[in-house]
Amino acid sequence: MKTFLFLLLALLLTASACKKDSPEAGLPPATQRGANTGGCLINGERFVAMGWGGSLLSNPIPPLGGGFFYDSLYSLRINGVYQNQNTTLTLFFRSQALGTHYLNQNTLSLDQGGLRIETLNHATLMASGPSELYITNSRNTGIIILSYANKTNGISAGTFEFTAASQADPAKTITITHGRFDRKQ
Question: How far does the signal peptide extend, from start to end residue (predicted)?
């Protein structure tokens, strides 16, 4: 009987020690102090801002880029590695106001010809391997929540999530969840 109780106790302790990691494990915390951090899950896989080295002819790519520009625009680039490829996730919205910014309209991206008056809120993901651009549109939507903005100090922080479709094959999509950023320009 003592052996049975000992085995039962050992089994219970072992089972309680097995704990599945949270999907957000390994992502930077959602802060608002200009920590220059960012990350998200891309199709459930961790993506963290880390940048990558340059080459003989180019400078290193920083983990985060962009921020406030002009009087009413915001753009953020999160650079990291996804599936062993240098990858850039870009968030763009035509306001610097706190709150929710919807990614739900068809538009050209900044990657497709720069800033134009008709460029609307959007998010993109581009990997350096076989170059494939994913972009939000009226069918593949999302949100950016700008929760902190201090333009004087160049600090911005928020969260985001979206689904984006491939420009090459619109049936192919990616899903971004648990996104967060804390940027100091």
Answer: 1-19
The pLDDT tens digits for 81-90 are: 999 999 999 9
The tokens of 138 are what?
């009226």
Q: What is d(CA 107, CA 139) in angstroms, rounded to the nearest whole number? A: 12
CA distance 25 to 98: 27
Burial of 171 (0-12, 13-18, 19+ CB in 10 A): exposed
Alpha-carbon distance 77 to 116, whole Å? Answer: 18
DSSP 121: S
- State the Cα–Cα distance between residues 132 and 106, nearest whole angstrom: 18
Higher pLDDT, 94 or 134: 134
Residue 89: half-sphere exposure toward Cβ, Cα within 13 Å: 28
Sequence-ordered strand ranges (E) for the chain: 37-42, 45-48, 64-69, 73-82, 85-93, 99-103, 122-127, 132-135, 142-150, 155-166, 173-184
Question: Which residues fall within 8 angstroms of residue 4, CB to CB, at 6 or more apart?
Answer: none
Contact 90, 109 (CB under 8 A): yes
Q: Where are the domains of the chain?
A: 26-184
